[in-house]
Automatic annotation (TrEMBL):
Domain DNA/pantothenate metabolism flavoprotein C-terminal: start-end pairs: 187-399
Gene Ontology molecular function, alphabetical: FMN binding; metal ion binding; phosphopantothenate--cysteine ligase activity; phosphopantothenoylcysteine decarboxylase activity
Gene: coaBC
Protein name: Coenzyme A biosynthesis bifunctional protein CoaBC
Cofactor note: Binds 1 FMN per subunit.
Keyword list, A-Z: Decarboxylase, Flavoprotein, FMN, Ligase, Lyase, Magnesium, Metal-binding, Multifunctional enzyme
Record-listed E.C. numbers: 4.1.1.36, 6.3.2.5
Length: 402
């Protein structure tokens, strides 16, 4: 392994999800990172030291009093490019929020001057407790990235919010943080709402009017925002993609459902990014049974009614002072002219305009766009990974948030 390999500290606290940290460790080491595992004493009840050493290729750091001449309680944090704690229990985050340092991991967190990512895992009641929520808010305010836990099966028969995010998605957050050079958590303490995917307007129980949006750009926006420290709510319309780590996902299908979810989510949002492809129209009537084909008879025309303009509504009625609203415009011709007209019509602060059709944008892993600002700015983003376009959009947002 190269001496210049990124140095990652993987902190593991004492939760049942500690076994999942083995998969995160494997991904980190196989991608060329130099990983030092710092498990708490409680974590060692779930996964033994031999496992950590075998997977990392390095001894696990477990005791403050070992190799005292190397001052491990200071040096490990000082030398790290990234510290990620997975799982992060309620107890561990409480200690971190209050500056307690009674073991090697909490000492490491106090001495680290690099980005710190917490991936919480605990029972729903513990996550929702006001003490935990205040500790999370404190850590985020200080610039730490605290991911939202996933919803799913917990210990025993319990199910709810508190499950450790998928290790592969935690790894993606770590990769993005390191790729941006570390200390850029310019969205820390912010709540952002992102819509993604394409709405579907049902004709009957088996047919719908829809579009080709895969949701990849919206998901990239959500994932990159989380890696930059934001609390993220993702309104997902029919996207068949894995949930980004640390993101609250709200699933919707139709434009009316998206509007309802958006108006609820934006109440305390600092930024709203409407990247979903929302149907302009829906069938005026819904057939409760499958519409049958009759031989020799042409089908009756489908009457359409207009869907609400969610972006224009949110822009016109900001839920809080200073709320920033970003829209997306997919155009097939006269891209910039149509984009400027749409920006004025929608009333948003930024409009990301991209050309679609002919294999561009929809369903692809790359995208190009122009970001038009209500202040007259115009920023061209060249074709590249959708993750890169997402970061460029957040750069524009962060500059306006101040």
């Amino acid at each position: 392994m190269s001496a210049s390999a990124p140095r990652v500290v993987l902190g593991v606290s004492g939760g049942i999800a500690a076994y999942k940290a083995c998969e995160l460790l494997r991904r980190l080491t196989e991608s060329g990172h130099r990983v030092t595992v710092v498990p708490t004493a409680a974590a060692m009840h779930f996964v033994g030291e031999a496992t950590w050493a075998a997977l990392s290729g390095r001894p696990a750091a477990t005791e403050t009093w070992e190799t005292v001449h190397e001052v491990p309680h200071v040096r490990i944090g000082q030398n790290a490019d990234l510290v990620v704690v997975a799982p992060a229990t309620a107890d561990l985050m409480a200690k971190a929020a209050h500056g307690l340092a009674d073991d090697l991991l909490t000492n490491t967190l106090l001495t680290a001057r690099c980005p710190v990512v917490f991936a919480p895992a605990m029972h729903t009641e513990m996550w929702e407790h006001p003490a935990t929520q205040e500790n999370v808010a404190t850590l985020r305010r200080r610039g730490a990235i605290v991911l939202e836990p996933a919803v799913g099966r917990l210990t025993g028969v319990d199910t709810g919010k508190g499950r450790l995010p998928d290790p592969s998605e935690i790894f993606e957050v770590c990769r993005r943080v390191l790729a941006r050079g570390g200390l850029d958590t310019d969205l820390a303490g912010r709540h952002v709402v992102v819509s993604a995917g394409g709405t579907r307007e049902p004709l009957d129980p088996v047919r719908f009017l829809g579009n080709l949006s895969s949701g990849k750009q919206g998901y990239a926006l959500a994932a990159t925002a989380a890696a930059r420290g934001a609390r993220v709510t993702l309104l997902s319309a029919n996207a068949e993609l894995p949930d980004p780590a640390g993101v609250d996902v709200v699933r919707v299908s139709t434009a009316l459902q998206l509007r309802e979810a958006a108006l609820k989510a934006v109440v305390d949002a600092d930024v709203v990014v409407m990247a979903a492809a929302v149907a302009d129209f829906r069938p005026a009537e819904y057939a409760t049974g499958k519409i049958k084909k009759v031989e020799g008879v042409d089908p009756a025309p489908v009457a359409l009614v207009r869907n609400p303009d969610i972006l224009a509504e949110i822009s016109a009625h900001r839920a809080r002072p200073g709320q920033l609203v970003v829209g997306f415009a997919a155009e097939t011709d006269d891209v910039l002219a149509n984009g400027r007209a749409k920006l004025a019509r929608k009333g948003c602060d930024l409009l990301v305009v991209n050309e679609v059709g002919g294999g561009k944008a929809f369903g692809q892993d790359t995208n190009a766009a122009v970001v038009l600002g209500a202040d007259g700015t115009e920023v061209t983003i060249p074709d590249g990974p959708k993750e890169s376009l997402a970061d460029a959009v957040w750069d524009e947002v962060a500059a306006r948030l101040g």
